[in-house]
Design brief:
Radius of gyration: 28 Å
Bound molecules: thymidine-5'-triphosphate, calcium ion
Shape: globular
Number of strands: 25
Strand content: 15-25%
GO biological process, one term: response to radiation
Organism: Polyplosphaeria fusca
Subcellular location: Nucleus
Main location: nucleus
Keywords: DNA damage, DNA repair, Metal-binding, Nucleus, Transferase, Zinc, Zinc-finger
Number of helices: 26
């Protein structure tokens, strides 16, 4: 590696007796500084994850070809099966032709009407009545995460779960400790106690990279002696080898890893050589490494932003884009241009965020054929609730460690997606029954609004997870009033789940009335609900109707600039099954897009961030993305499609609170009506005016609120 002759002759050679790194930069490692050039990050990604889960679960020989099937498609293919040319675009029938010995294991499913998922041998025939469960893979994912953590000293476990089968590790502090252990000259103090002094030179010219795939740095760069950044990466790589060894030994899984100075490079590195390999990208090799990539493979650049750049500069290659001066890139906007400029040069100062708490959970099903009756919907709700509740239990709801604040139902009919949201009462233990009643109530609201059938997709999510809530005042108390509030509370206390929807218990309500003429039923709703109802219409979300979803969305850290520029998840990070027959599954990973570049609203995590690069090659696949927005009041991310509705939710809640206060103060309705419009309703810029108002835009806000109230009380 080193060459004294070259060192003597090259004008580029740093032939000082010192390193090019300072004592300060070394010290910064200890505190996980995101800017020290000595930083060391690893990304670990399981090989053919679901396929390995099945191999391990069934105790099969990992050398035998195996694929995980979902309906007629394949969603995971192990490496022995890939040798037969199998990939996710191949159907199960085609797969068997290509590889007659292929073991195909269908994913576990929830069967309509049952309250537990199971492995059903004939599940592939029953797409209409079964729903995919990813529980087995989530369970394995958790075990692997904890094994990875345990493989690291407790004080150095800075691990971010990035998806169901990947994690980032910030190994900086651990490497710092190892450096000091192995190179006593680094223990200091620095000469003259001056941290801006350069470190001594690395005492060796050869580093042990073991079996690592070492990305070449190009002839010239390879001539230079190793410096401390190389040493740091070699130590990190040693740690990662140990971690991977533990995962294999204890749980039987192989994984691949990337080791580099930041998340972006580490992530690209883990996919560079697979399976069961680890790739190191030394700082000196970054330019060489990135040049060969399409920039659309880089995190954040796989989606619309990437397309925009391709269109603007007529290329998708990093090499070509690197020729563009900063001013040219700034055509994309100052911030985006600068970010892009440094990103394609391998800069990324985002943190490894060890928070792995789930912040929302979603369970969904696409119906083919569509469903046509309330009772049918309710049967699916029972499954969604069982699914979501079991995941809540894993999150510690029974011990009141964490619990969700809101429940959402999304309903799709034709091109229209509608959502209903309700607070989850906080003052008593969360139960499956409570969630079920709330869910049923939400579905009943959709139904009473009309045009509910045929329904092609239903999804249920709970969100706003909070740590052990102690206040016994349910947020629900603020949202609804009068009969509606009583009806809701009653519904939460109901007995058998097969009972009628809560609406039945409303005044005058029997089930026939409930599903009767729309206008008449509107009277059943009180003022705040009317505001919600009126505004909840006509969502034109382009959410994919074919999703059979089962996903958790992990807490993100808004301070993480990396995430700011991107994601969710999640995740919201999610991805689809690119089967030609269906896209039936998606999962989430990591954090959602919490902010946008230049205030753009269309930036969301590219699928490849989820380890779904292959999807980009497949033209007919509609990419599912879940754009989210951050609600500062709930401190949570929610699907962007729900933004307007969610704002309405707060608006109605505030309004209702005002009214309660005024009621308490003995104020009249007249005053309430004077006051209510003063609250600015968030502008939504889409959909029809609330309450069916034909009034104009902008200035109509106040009138709309009044109208909604009027209508609710007619
Ligand atoms: P990936 O990490 O993208 O792929 P993989 O683990 O199967 O294979 P690799 O060795 O290349 O990393 O996805 C992780 C799991 O997510 C995968 O095993 C199955 C699931 N998945 C889907 O269900 N649908 C998809 O479209 C993709 C890409 C993955
Ligand atoms: Ca993987
Ligand atoms: Ca992955």
């Amino acid at each position: 590696m080193s060459s004294p002759q070259f060192l003597a002759s090259s004008p580029l050679t740093r032939r000082t007796p010192k390193s090019r790194f300072t004592w300060k930069q070394l010290g910064q490692l200890k505190s996980y500084s995101t800017t020290t050039p000595l930083r060391v990050i690893a990304h670990v990604d399981l090989d053919a994850f679901y396929a390995q889960c099945e191999t391990v679960r069934l105790g099969l020989d990992p050398a035998k070809p195996l694929a995980v099937q979902q309906w007629q498609g394949l969603i995971a293919i192990n490496y022995p099966a890939r040798a037969f040319g199998l990939n996710r675009h191949v159907t199960s029938t085609e797969a068997l032709k290509l590889c007659p010995d292929l073991m195909m294991q269908h994913v576990a499913t929830w069967k309509e009407g049952e309250d537990k998922w199971a492995y059903h041998a004939d599940a592939y025939k029953h797409m209409a009545t079964h729903k995919v469960s990813l529980d087995p893979y989530r369970t394995e994912s958790r075990k692997i995460l904890s094994c990875i953590k345990d493989a690291l000293p407790e004080k150095f476990q800075r691990v971010e779960k990035a998806s169901i089968d990947e994690v980032f590790l910030d190994l900086s502090a651990q490497v710092h400790e190892l450096l000091l252990e192995r190179y006593p000259e680094l223990r200091g103090p620095p000469p003259y106690d001056d941290v801006t002094e350069y470190l001594p030179k690395v005492p060796t010219t050869v580093l042990d990279w073991d079996a690592d795939a070492l990305v070449s740095a190009g002839e010239e760069e390879e001539q230079t002696d190793p410096d401390w950044d190389d040493v740091c990466l070699a130590l990190a790589s040693e740690i990662v080898r140990g971690v991977r060894g533990q995962v294999k030994e204890q749980l039987g899984y192989t994984c691949s890893a990337g080791v580099a100075k930041n998340k972006m490079l580490a992530k690209l590195g883990s996919g560079y050589k697979k399976p069961n390999a680890q790739t190191v990208i030394r700082n000196r090799a970054v330019a060489c490494f990135l040049e060969g990539f399409k920039f659309t493979k880089i995190r954040m650049l796989g989606g619309k932003l990437g397309d925009e750049i391709v269109a603007m500069f007529g290329t998708d290659s990093v090499r070509d884009l690197m020729q563009q001066p900063l001013e040219q890139l700034r055509k994309l906007g100052d911030d985006t241009g600068s970010w892009l400029y440094s990103t394609i040069r391998g800069e990324d100062h985002s943190e490894v965020n060890p928070r792995t708490q789930i912040k929302s959970m979603l369970s969904a099903k696409s119906f083919r054929p569509a469903i046509n009756a309330f009772e049918q919907g309710v049967r699916w709700l029972r499954i969604f609730v069982a699914d979501v509740f079991s995941r809540c239990v894993e999150e510690g709801v029974l011990e009141n460690k964490r619990r969700p604040k809101t429940i959402n139902l999304h309903h799709r009919q034709g091109q229209q997606t509608r959502s209903r949201q309700s607070p989850i009462p906080q003052g008593r233990p969360l139960s499956e029954q409570m969630l079920f009643d709330l869910a049923k109530n939400l579905l009943a609201q959709v139904v009473v609004d009309g045009r509910a059938w045929p329904c092609s997709n239903l999804s249920l999510s709970v969100g706003g997870f909070e740590d052990g809530v102690t206040n016994n005042k349910g947020i629900g108390g603020f949202l609804v009033r009068g009969d509606e509030a009583r009806a809701m509370l009653a519904s939460e206390r109901t007995g058998p789940d097969s009972g009628p929807p809560p609406a039945k218990r409303r005044k005058k309500g029997n089930i026939a009335n409930f599903f009767g003429p729309r206008e008449g039923q509107k009277k059943e709703f009180d003022a705040a609900r009317a505001v919600l109802m009126a505004k909840n219409q006509q969502s034109t979300s382009r959410e994919d109707e074919n999703a059979d979803v089962d996903m958790d969305h992990i807490e993100d850290d808004p301070s993480d600039s990396y995430e700011h520029l991107h994601n969710d998840p999640a995740e919201d990070r999610r991805h689809t099954t690119p089967s030609p027959v269906h896209q039936d599954d998606l999962y989430t990973t990591g954090t959602p897009p919490s902010a946008q570049l230049d205030n753009r609203s269309d930036h969301h995590p590219p699928l490849h961030e989820l380890g779904v690069d292959s999807l980009h090659d497949k033209k007919p696949v509609r990419q599912q993305t879940l754009e989210t927005f951050f609600c500062a009041r709930c401190t949570m991310h929610l699907p962007a499609a729900e933004k307007a509705e969610h704002e309405d939710f707060h608006f109605a809640m505030d309004l209702s609170k005002d009214m309660r206060e005024e009621d308490r103060n003995g104020n009249s309705n007249a005053k309430t009506n004077q006051k209510a419009p003063a609250r600015q309703k968030p502008s939504r810029g889409r959909g029809r005016p609330p309450g069916g108002s034909t009034g104009g835009r902008g200035g109509s806000e106040k009138g709309q609120v009044k109208l909604a109230f009027g209508r609710g009380r007619d």
